[in-house]
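Protocol step 4 of 5: obtain the predicted structure for the target chain.
Materials: sequence only (see below). No template structures provided, no constraints applied. The aim of this step is simply to have a reference model before the mutagenesis design in step 5. Sequence pasted as it appears in the construct record:
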Amino acid sequence: MFCGGTRTAKEVAYVIAGRLIQQYQDFCLFRGIKFTRIDSVRPHDHTTLFCSAGMQQYKPLFLDLSHIGTVANSQACLRMGDLDEIGDGTHFLQFTMLGLFSFREMTVGDAIDFWLEFLATLGLLPDHVTIHPDRLEEWAPLYRGHIPIVTDDECTWSDGNITGYCTEFYKDGIEIGNIVNPLGTCIDVGFGAERLDMIVNGTPPADALSTLCDTVMTIVECGYKPGNKEQSYVLRKLLRRIHVMGGTLDHPYFEQEVERQERLRSKYLRLREKYPDMTAQWWFDTHGIDVTDMLALNGR
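Step 4 output (structure tokens):
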């Protein structure tokens, strides 16, 4: 497969999803809420390699008890935790988070009304929502009986420092977003633009190989180069996976990584008889060889 050709499909998808993002931006601005659009996945702090949530840049404001206000954004995000799930129609490596963040100003009820109203402009009504049992009595009436409610003990959120109960929205069996109540006084809302686009506009999800290629280009466009540490290693790992899956990418970084992998493969084939009992970790630490990739390449 030649992944370079998927850029056109990606651009078309961006146009469709972009309309949805613009619609959300207009919705917020009409209500006097400042809106910021961020297309880079570079992190806003050092807790993650890439920006993984729209709220990341606002952590100090959640913790600043003197700050009061509400903002909204669309934030490009990248999460490697779903790498093995991509291509199943519901998981993405990169996505755009539509966010609403209120610091001691909006209530949970305000946020629910806000998002149900926006979803209604898309012609979308959740099939059901979930609420933690500890908040069921307080939050269930906020939906005014319009949406079925399911209790869920896992309706909590934490980044290790900021925590809160949440209520999650579902459509067609897929979680499309949630409203978190950080510290019990703030609002952190996140809805995935791609999932909304998939449900509202019927946009088909990309396959795993196309997703990998698009993610590589996103990382490259943020200024990262292949290497052995942090973001650079993630980029190299994705390039390797494209090669292992039999794909290709019209970019010098891919060509360089393929050449590098072929050199490592030759080295591995030459040394494995000499070191038959060494662990995969030893191969990686000593020679920079990922045994899993080598075995996959040999089996192609």
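Step 4 remarks: The longest helix spans residues 6-30. The beta strands are 34-38, 69-78, 94-103, 128-131, 149-151, 156-158, 163-171, 174-182, 186-192.
Proceed to step 5.
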